Amino acid sequence: MSEGTESAYVPKGVDLEKPNAARTYDWFLGGTTNWAVDREFGKQVLQVMPSLRTVALVNREFLRRAVRHCVRHGVRQFLDIGSGVPTVRNVHEVADELDPDSRCVYVDNEPVAVAHGRVLLEKHGDLKRHAALNADLLNVDNLWEQTRATGVLDPNEPIALLMVAVLHFVPPGGGAEEAVARYKELLPSGSYLVASHATNDGIPADRAAEAATAEAQYKRANTPIGFRSREQFTGFFEGWDLVDPGVTWAAEWRLDDLDSELTSEWADNPNASCGFVGVARKP
Ligand SMILES: C[S@@+](CC[C@H](N)C(=O)[O-])C[C@H]1O[C@@H](n2cnc3c(N)ncnc32)[C@H](O)[C@@H]1O
Fold first, then answer.
1. Domains by residue range for the chain, with CATH
2. What is the mean pLDDT of residues 159-175?
3. What number is the average pLDDT over the span 73-78?
4. Which of 51, 167, 175, 227 is deepest in the core (most CB within 10 A)?
């Protein structure tokens, strides 16, 4: 496991005294865009919830399966909100494997994630087809304007809106439901919503205790997370057609397209993945 790098580019205004959810998640995934404060926080969280690293990797595997599903169903444009620090097998790479003309705009409210996304795209992407933006998912109009200004996505053609492992950073009552409803209005017919979300609803009893402690730690670190029930999560897809098999555990969704062994290890107890997932199409 990488120990990160202290020489990674630090954009102006970034406080490296405080851990950040994006960089801690990068460390969980084995990335290098994290600092001592993030790794220290990540280690504390893993002490109370040792499965969290696998939970993150299984979530990432769902993301790849969902992207492939969208491309196979004719969607070539991706708006990845809460995209995180770029890591191995990013959305544009997975999409490009199936359609080299696919397009992707990455959005995150963490400046380090965005700066590293830009560096990666300059080196390995195609700036006509890929962009990275700094925006908050709750500022829908600003985010949408910035996305349009890149010229990367055609707003009249279907777009897959990815909100993977991000909505729980806006706890219930914080405006996520309203924001998602507005994105769904803006997107044209044939677009997809791909989402995953941490939960404590129906997870194994030992995980529930761990999840509660981890939730308290994130709150203390000023990056609060808020779990949603299956019903609350399903509400994000309202009015759109859920793709089979509907809302499931991350370790349950379309396992016929797995590209790693990890998820199948939880086939007998998929609720250990502690996250709901779903993909829906706008009629
Ligand atoms: C756990 S990571 C998920 C990364 C990626 N989507 C994945 O599933 O592998 C969550 C990301 O959401 C970002 N985020 C949290 N709140 C956000 C907000 N209000 N607007 C935009 N991004 C946000 C964090 O900075 C972080 O990079």
1. 21-281 (3.40.50.150)
2. 96
3. 98
4. 167
How many Å apart are CA 236 and CA 282, to the nearest integer?
12
Using CA positions, which residue lies closest to atom 12 of ligand 1? 82
Name which residue sits closest to atom 10 of ligand 1, judged by CA.
166
**What do you get for the CA distance between the two ends of the chain, in Å?**
44
Mutate to test the pocket of ligand 1, among 59, 109, 116 (most ligand atoms within 8 A of CB): 109
The mean pLDDT of the chain is 92
Nearest to 51 by CA among 282, 283, 272, 276: 272
pLDDT digits (tens, 9 = 90+) for 211-248: 899 888 888 877 789 999 999 999 999 999 999 999 99
**Any atom of ligand 1 within 6 Å of the Cβ of 110:** yes
Q: Whose CA is nearest to atom 23 of ligand 1?
A: 82
197: left (phi over 0), alpha (psi -120 to 50) or beta: beta
Residue of 223 and 104 predicted with greater confidence: 104
pLDDT exceeds cutoff 60 at 190: yes
